[in-house]
Amino acid sequence: MESLPVRCPVCSRDHAYLTPVYPCPCGSPTAPPLMRGAPVEPITHRTWDDDWVSVRCHSCGRRDQWPYPELCCPCGTVLRIPVRPVATRGFTPSAPPGPPPAPLPRTAAQPRPAFQPLVIRTARDAVSAAALYLTWLGYRDVVQPEVRPTSRIDLRAAGVIAQVDSTTRPIALRDVECLWLNALHTSVSGVLFSLAGYADDARSRANGLSIPLFVMDLTGTPRPENGAADALARTGP
After folding, report:
1. Which residues share a beta bridge with 55?
2. Are 145 and 228 found together in one domain?
3. Which of 67, 112, 118, 130 has the most crowded Cβ, counting Cβ within 10 A?
């Protein structure tokens, strides 16, 4: 992955931004071409068109729309990373594309035993309860850091990261977007757990990004709050 030094214009914090890589339908990894030296732009207003960028596959020449590269600074500012525009002429594929790999048949999920929750008395208990639930869903090697990182990611496992909010305020739109960006950067899925629920705009954004939202009560039992969470609870990862 290409690395780009980025300085937040709001707090002057320096970051090393890693370009997200996406699989083209031909099977080749594809990434937005970043513009080195160009200033980053704080996002103060969003439109659907601004959230996507055209990217051309260097192997087959296919042009697709991918999420615009963004970075969530710990100061709370979301930064848009400049991207070189796609050339419309003079492209020569590096190799003839082969057919996309055939999808593997999905096997029937094995019945899971009933989830055994962990009673929540502290913020740490909330993280532990979410870790138990991810393990119950079928994620492997669920790990919780001893100290919460600046990215606010509380749990990591094979193929997923999760944020657990044990405060009394509903999760905000920015929390959803930061989790989504962190998941994109590491090519995994993101899941949110909250004790106080979600703001309306945060819920709407999560639905559009297919991010599972769960609400936990003090018994430690997560409850699906959107379609993505329902699907995850039914079939697992």
Report:
1. 64
2. yes
3. 130
d(CA 192, CA 172): 11
Distances (CA, A) of 199 to 173, 174, 182, 217, 225: 7, 10, 20, 17, 12
173 assigned to some structural domain: yes
What contacts 160, CB < 8 A, 6 or more positions away? 134, 139, 188, 189, 190, 191, 237
Do 128 and 213 lie in one domain? The reply is: yes
The β-bridge partners of 6 are 15
| Any domain includes 12 | yes
Structural domain harbouring 222: 123-235
Q: Kindly state whether residue 97 falls inside one of the protein's structural domains.
A: no
pLDDT in tens, the chain (237 residues): 567 888 899 999 888 887 777 777 777 888 888 888 888 888 887 666 667 788 888 888 888 877 788 887 878 788 888 888 876 544 455 444 445 444 444 444 456 788 888 899 999 999 999 999 999 999 989 998 776 666 678 899 999 999 999 998 999 999 999 999 988 888 899 999 999 999 999 999 999 999 999 999 999 999 999 999 999 998 888
CA distance 55 to 59: 12
Q: What is the pTM of this model?
A: 0.56
Which of 19, 53, 80 is where one domain is finished? 80
- Identify whether residues 136 and 225 lie together within a single domain: yes
Structure tokens, 129: 């309860």
Judgement on whether residues 141 and 203 belong to the same structural domain of the protein: yes
Count of the separate structural domains present in the chain: 2
